[in-house]
Design goal:
The complex is a heterodimer of chains A (about 260) and B (about 210). In chain A, α2 runs antiparallel to α7. Chain A has two domains: about 100 residues, no CATH class; about 160 residues, 2-Layer Sandwich (Phosphorylase Kinase, domain 1), CATH 3.30.200. Chain A has a six-stranded antiparallel beta sheet with strand order 1-2-3-6-5-4, sandwiched between helices. The longest helix of chain A is centred in the first third of the chain and has 24 residues. By secondary structure, chain A is of the alpha+beta class. In chain A, β4 and β5 form a beta hairpin. Chain A contains nine helices and six strands. In chain B, α3 packs parallel to α5 and α6 runs antiparallel to α10. The N and C termini of chain B lie far apart (about 45 Å). The chains are: A alpha+beta (about 260), B mainly alpha (about 210).
């Protein structure tokens, strides 16, 4: 492949390339530091642009919320509508096959998570930028990896493994007091599109799919509300391919302060 | 409970909307669902509105106008994903309508783009100039065409396909226009001394 041009690099960072084209760009980045530099620049610019979004005036949501003025008839209509919509949703869900995470995937995720956690406890190491790029090149696509510093989790581990049906990229987030959270990105679409939660003893997993990439968040012993909020925010970030906004970061930070410490 | 909870009565009364005629039966059935779809995008709609107007009050008005038009529309997208692009398109149309009514034409014509450097070459400036402050300043100095496409992709997080739907252009045009817009953004930061001024503030010691 020829060297990717500026438009292609932009599309790569925005996740707008077809998998084959994205893989070619990732390969080029792995072998050409200049390309890798341009990609890093574009990620930095994209993140800064998102951060530059103006704050929403508080009165905006309030003003819209104030447009109520309900009459009894209207309230009744809403209640009836809610009942009908709710019934339709329940019936619809009942007819759909129950979303589930495959057992082999969970086993793989657990093994990779525990392997990293064990190694990290004995000898913590940081993910080196070059190793990150190499891992992503092997992986072949550029997933969206959110920054979770606001909840005091930093990326300490990135690796690519073979999973039950394809490559698995593992991003390990490490807390200050022993928390370990793994975000797995899968190249096959066996995860349900809508987020599902699985609880196994002290282990928790959240899985969802965005286009042809599956995401699985896995942790053990983390405060339930904290993990749920993280899953919610990470899912939103992966769907919109934008960094967490200020409000989300504040929510995560506040939740962190109120959460119980992780249980090793 | 959603802060956008509304029975819609205010929308269906006293509002004549030629673009989106009200269908009362559909309206009553789907308002709660549509409201839930709209709510998460209020902030991003505001960001897009601000990129268009560069004015806080006008942006608030535009977002409210957009929401009213959406809730009063005769038909709505069938899923939340499709709803995203639809909402941003409504907001953009509302912006254009407002300017037309006030006697001004809004020009998003790319011929007004002044950037002339080799569009497909990489950028080789100092990466340290790129941060939230400098980008915020530089975005204000871009053309409306460049501001709106950066707002749609980077503020709102729309895909290229959704952005193409909002702007009524081909996906390939989105790709090339966005690439030019980002390079223009970098050029503004580099050539208009945005960085030096912004960074200089960090070294001021307040006493």
């Amino acid at each position: 492949m020829n060297q990717p041009d500026w438009s292609t690099l932009n599309a790569y960072v925005d996740g707008a390339l077809e998998p084959a084209a994205a893989a070619a760009v990732a390969d080029a980045a792995g072998s050409d530091p200049g390309i890798a530099w341009q990609i890093a620049l574009l990620y930095q610019l994209k993140g800064a642009s998102h951060g530059a979004m103006p704050d929403v005036p508080a009165e905006l949501a309030g003003a819209l919320a104030g447009r109520r003025g309900k009459s009894l008839l209207a309230v009744a209509a809403i209640a009836a509508t809610a009942f009908l919509v709710g019934t339709a949703i329940v019936v619809g869900l009942y007819r759909m096959p129950a979303p589930a995470l495959s057992e082999d995937l969970l086993v793989t995720a657990r093994a990779l998570h525990e392997q990293w956690e064990e190694a990290d406890r004995s000898q913590p190491a940081d993910a080196h930028p070059a190793a990150v790029l190499a891992a992503l090149s092997v992986f072949g696509q550029m997933p969206f990896v959110p920054d979770l510093e606001s909840t005091e989790l930093t990326i300490g581990h990135i690796t690519v493994s073979n999973g039950p049906a394809g490559r698995i990229l593992q991003i390990g987030y490490r807390g200050n007091h022993g928390c370990h959270l793994s975000l797995f990105v899968l190249t096959y679409a066996r995860l349900p599109e809508m987020r599902v939660r699985v609880a196994m003893g002290r282990e928790r997993a959240y899985g969802w799919r965005v286009d042809d990439l599956g995401y699985l968040l896995f942790a053990e012993g983390m405060d339930e509300s904290r993990l749920t909020l993280i899953a919610n925010k990470v899912e939103q970030a992966t769907r919109s391919r934008t960094p967490l906004d200020r409000q989300a970061e504040e929510q995560l930070a506040e939740n962190k302060r109120e959460s119980a410490p992780c249980r090793a | 409970m959603s802060p956008l909870a509304a029975d819609g009565s205010q929308i269906s009364h006293g509002r004549s909307n030629e673009d989106f005629p009200v269908s009362s039966s559909t309206f009553q059935m789907a308002v709660p669902v549509l409201r839930e779809w709209i709510e998460p995008y209020l902030g991003r709609l505001y960001g897009f509105a601000f990129a268009l107007t560069q004015d806080r009050d006008q942006s608030c008005d535009l977002v409210q106008d957009c929401v009213l038009r959406a809730l009063a529309a005769a038909s709505w997208p069938s899923d939340e994903r499709a709803c995203r692009a639809w909402l941003f398109r409504i907001l953009r149309n509302a912006f254009i309508d407002r300017h037309r009514k006030s006697g001004f034409e809004v020009s998003f014509d790319p011929v007004h783009e002044t950037y002339t450097d080799d569009a497909e070459a990489g950028w080789h400036g100092d990466r340290r100039i790129v941060d939230v402050v400098t980008v915020r300043i530089a975005i204000d100095r871009l053309t409306p065409t460049h501001r709106e496409i950066i707002a749609l992709v980077d503020f709102a997080g729309l895909s290229y396909r959704e952005t193409a739907e909002v702007l009524g252009i081909a996906e390939g045009t989105v790709m090339s226009r966005l690439a030019r817009a980002r390079k223009a953004l970098l050029a503004v930061m580099e050539t208009e001394n945005v960085t030096v001024l912004a960074r200089a503030r960090k070294h001021i010691r307040w006493k």
